Structure prediction request, 471 residues.
Amino acid sequence: MDAFRAPKKTLGDLDAEAAAKLIAAVADVAIVVDNKGVIRDVAISNEELVKEEYGKWLGQRWVDTVTVESRPKIEEMLRDAAAGEVPRWRQVNHASKRGADVPIRYSAIEIGDNGRVVAVGRDLRAIAALQQRLVETQQVMEREYARLRHAETRYRLLFQIASEAVLVVDAVTLRVVESNPAATRLLSKAVKRLGGRSFPEIFDAESAKGVQAHLAAVRGTGRAEDVTAKLTGSKQQFVVSASLFRQDNTTHFLVRLSPASNQGSDTLNLKSKVFDFVEKLPDGFVVTDPDGRILKANSAFLELVQVATEEQTHGELLERWLGRHATDVKVLSTNLKERGSIRNFATVVRGEYGSTEDVDVSAVSVTNGEQPCLGFTIRLTGRKPEAATSNSNRRDVPRSVEQMTELVGRVSLKELVRDTTDIIERLCIEAALELTGDNRASAAEMLGLSRQGLYSKLRRYGLGDLDGDDD
Prediction:
């Protein structure tokens, strides 16, 4: 320990009050212990320790204020202080009323000739919390590293045993970085060495242009239609399909090669025709994942939502543009999960620049296949003039409470209340007719209606045969 060189000159004659202030200022907790180890005075400058009521230690033995495993350390510090040894910092734990023990780091030194010892302590809870966070972070890192290592092992295993030819191609140089055994076997006759070779050079001149265009489209938009290509010096055709991924801050293509067949060609042509058909639909068409994020949208939908390119919609939630409020899409999704399809759901489409259009939505849920998805057809309805609305064109009245509750979120509360009234009227008329044995005069009297009023409601609800009755 390096002590003060001239304490009398630099510190002067410090009295007890000044010494006490100095000791209390440099420690979170400071205690004075007599030669029997009993605490005679205590000073606490840490507010958290004050809440622990450590100021009530007066008259207790210091060794009794700590946990069992810390008592030998207290006894050792008192012995060292009495023997005049150089003080050492020792960590001990005090019991806490709030749960976990409180770690305090003490250093003790004897003062005067009466065997009294002054111990100054520092609260280590902040450091302990940091140490705990460090340990937890290290454990998380180790678990993540193990997970990545296992994932890489699975990837390597799948890559090696896959029956389909797969190649990893550098997205900048277009050179083959890696290939699986299936690709080596498939291309061994046409290409002697795959590693480091330019990928387009594997194909003939005409096919190489198509492959390069395919890779450029994937690099630009993230996906593109599969292309067929012929190997150099061979008449055999392959279907080339590429996807983009990043690894070690480098972009790569994962390319799959599969032998082309007439059936495969027909399938590709059919897919292309289907995509063309969907693209040219006058109604909006959207495909989303089960969470409602857009995967595919046609031009009619882009026009409805006032978006220039399809790429601007990819990954966006459909509810950004569809629905009067967020519950519309939730109602749609709930019905799709329960029923698998829904038709003529009335709502609105909101454009990017504030426009609003009334639409009817029909949707279907596709749970089978490689990727579950939801398909939505969105048709403009426009506002119908009031004069054109009549009883004959009116929306069918729900015939049960279940049918009525399904309309929540699709029609306004005013319409729901009106339909509820219609349901009650129809049920009461049916009950009256059943009780009177289809005697309409008696039924009208039972319901408090005129005969003409009853006939009017029978026509309205389509109940019974009125051809033989007088108006």
Q: What stands out?
A: The chain has 14 helices and 15 strands. Residues 125-161 form the longest helix (37 residues). The CA atoms of residues 169 and 380 lie 46 Å apart.
